[in-house]
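Project outcomes to date are best conveyed with an example. Our students and postdoctoral researchers have been running inverse folding experiments weekly, and each run begins with a structure described purely in tokens. The record below, which covers 149 residues, was selected by the lab manager from last quarter's runs and is presented without edits.
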């Protein structure tokens, strides 16, 4: 990852939840986004199929109230950080049986940003005094998301 992108991720986590992250954390974050976006798209594909459509629309994604609020919060934070273009490049949207509409594709970086906000805040719920997430913190956060998404 280019140094400038790494600095933006560091700044994002510092602004969002007063966390210090390193390049290993950025890799974990990327893996997290790939997995969670895939899960959202998988359910979106099931919903589109159930509605007899062969294209996943934004309304097919199971975006909860909390995730929607995190997406809105991400847009506010991102004005000063400009992370969304990096998320668009970084995240690998996995192939599915159905295609995504252009609108769905264009919304995924903001969804990834909302998931990132939620992840950062989850660390603070796990340990309000946390400054530098360790492997155990990441694993706990992943387990929480696996239960909820």
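After processing, the design step wrote out the following sequence:
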């Amino acid at each position: 990852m280019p140094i400038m992108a790494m600095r933006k991720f560091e700044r994002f986590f510092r602004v969002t939840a007063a966390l210090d992250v390193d390049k290993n954390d950025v890799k974990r974050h990327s893996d997290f986004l790939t997995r969670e976006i895939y899960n959202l798209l998988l359910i979106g594909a099931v919903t589109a199929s159930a509605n007899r459509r062969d294209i996943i629309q934004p309304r097919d994604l199971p975006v909860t109230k909390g995730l929607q609020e995190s997406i809105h919060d991400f847009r506010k934070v991102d004005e000063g950080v400009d992370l969304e273009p990096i998320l668009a490049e970084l995240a690998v949207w996995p192939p599915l049986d159905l295609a995504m509409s252009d609108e769905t594709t264009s919304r995924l970086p903001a969804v990834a940003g909302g998931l990132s906000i939620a992840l950062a805040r989850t660390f603070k719920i796990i340990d309000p005094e946390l400054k530098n997430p360790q492997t155990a913190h990441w694993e706990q956060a992943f387990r929480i998301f696996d239960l909820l998404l």
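The chain has six helices and two strands. Residues 23-50 form the longest helix (28 residues). The training component of this project remains on track.
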